[in-house]
Amino acid sequence: DGPSVAVVGVTGAVGQEFLRVLSDRNFPYRNIRLLASRRSAGKRLTFEDREYTIEELRPESFEGIDIALFSAGGSISKEFGPVAVERGSIVVDNSSAFRMVPEVPLVIPEVNPEAMAHIKLKGRSGKGALIANPNCSTIICLMAATPLHRHAKVVRMVVSTYQAASGAGAAAMEELLQQTHEVLDGKQPTCKIFNQQYAFNLFSHNAAVLSNGYNEEEMKLVKETRKIWNDMDVKVTATCIRVPVMRAHAESVNLQFEKPLDEDTARCILEGAAGVAVIDDRESNHFPTPLDVSNKDDVAVGRIRQDLSQDGNLGLDIFVCGDQIRKGAALNAIQIAEKLL
Ligand code: 2RA
C-alpha cells in the first residue's frame, strides 16, 4: 500500500506532466488528490482510467497526504507548503520559494541524493518535511556538468541558455504558436504574455533584472549550483535568453577545471552518466536539439570539445538540451518522491 499523493496545481503544464510521469513510472500511489484554484475546482479529469474531481486547494486538503507535489507558483507554495508540512506531508516543491533556505534540501536525484537522505516516508511518525526542486535551467545544466565536476572539479562555469516557451507556462506556448500563425499570415502578432514579439525572435529572459544587471533566472543558476554542489567558491556566470522553442531548453556550458580533463575522457564519463544521452557526431554535424529531447527523460549533451582558450586541458565546452517540463520539473520532482519510498 503505497503513499497517498496530492498534486497541487494539477491544471498547469507541470501539473499535467506530474500525472503523465506518475503513470509512465507506475508510481505506487495508494490514492491521489488533485488540487487547484477555485477556478478549476469541480472540473472532472480522467487519470489512469479513473474519474477524478479537481478539488479546491485548502489547508485540510493535506489531511492524510504522504507526498504533496507542488507546482502552482511561489505564492501558493509559500502559503500552503508549510501548512502541508504541519499536517505531516512531505512536500516536493517546484517553485523557487524555499530553494535557498539552508535547511531545505535542493535535490537532483542523480546529482546530490545525499542532501535528502535524512527524509523518509516510513517511520517519520507523522512529521512532514519540505524538499525543493531546482530551477529547470539549473537541473538541465548540472545533469551534464556534475559528472565532469566530480572527476576534475569545476572552478568556473559560464552558461548561456536558450530557454523554451514552456518555462513561462502553457499560455506562453500558446502565444508562440498564435504569433507564428499571425506572422505567417502577415498579421500583427498578439503580445499578451511577453511585451514583445516572440515568434521569429529571441530576447533576454523575462525574469526581473536585479541591481547587479543579472536577471533572477541567471542568479538562480549561480546560487543553486553552489548549493547543489555544496561549493560556495565555484565561480558561475550566466546569460539566460528566451527563444522561440516550445518545451525544451538548450544551454551552452563552458567549464574550467582544477585538474586536467581531456575531451575523450569527458565523453566517456558522460556516456556513463545516469539520465544523460551523448549526441556528439562531428562527422555528420549531429548534436543535441530541443526536438531530440522533448517529452523525453534524459538530457542530451554534445559539442564536447577542449576549450582552446585554456591550456593543459583545463577547459571544456559542451552543449546540453533537456525537456523543461519533464526533467526540468515534473520528472525530477517525482524521482525525488521515489527516493522517499
Ligand atoms: C523559465 N526557469 O524557464 C523558468 C521556469 N521556471 O522561465
Automatic annotation (TrEMBL):
Pfam family, any one: Semialdhyde_dhC
Residue ranges of domain Semialdehyde dehydrogenase NAD-binding in the record: 4-119
Pathway annotation: Amino-acid biosynthesis; L-threonine biosynthesis; L-threonine from L-aspartate: step 2/5; Amino-acid biosynthesis; L-methionine biosynthesis via de novo pathway; L-homoserine from L-aspartate: step 2/3
Alphabetized SUPFAM superfamilies for the sequence: Glyceraldehyde-3-phosphate dehydrogenase-like, C-terminal domain, NAD(P)-binding Rossmann-fold domains
This protein's UniProt keywords: Amino-acid biosynthesis, Diaminopimelate biosynthesis, Lysine biosynthesis, Methionine biosynthesis, NADP, Oxidoreductase, Threonine biosynthesis
Alphabetized SMART domains for the sequence: Semialdhyde_dh
A GO biological process held by the record: threonine biosynthetic process
Single GO molecular function: protein dimerization activity
Stored InterPro entries: Asp_semialdehyde_DH, Asp_semialdehyde_DH_beta, NAD(P)-bd_dom_sf, Semialdehyde_DH_NAD-bd, Semialdhyde_DH_dimer_dom
The enzyme's E.C. designation: 1.2.1.11
Annotated Gene3D superfamilies: Dihydrodipicolinate Reductase, domain 2 (3.30.360.10), NAD(P)-binding Rossmann-like Domain (3.40.50.720)
Highest taxon of source: Eukaryota
Keyword Metal-binding carried by entry: no
Catalysed conversion reaction: L-aspartate 4-semialdehyde + phosphate + NADP(+) = 4-phospho-L-aspartate + NADPH + H(+)
Self-association state and partner proteins as the record states: Homodimer.
PANTHER family the record matches: ASPARTATE-SEMIALDEHYDE DEHYDROGENASE, DEHYDROGENASE, PUTATIVE-RELATED
Protein name: aspartate-semialdehyde dehydrogenase
Species: Musa acuminata subsp. malaccensis
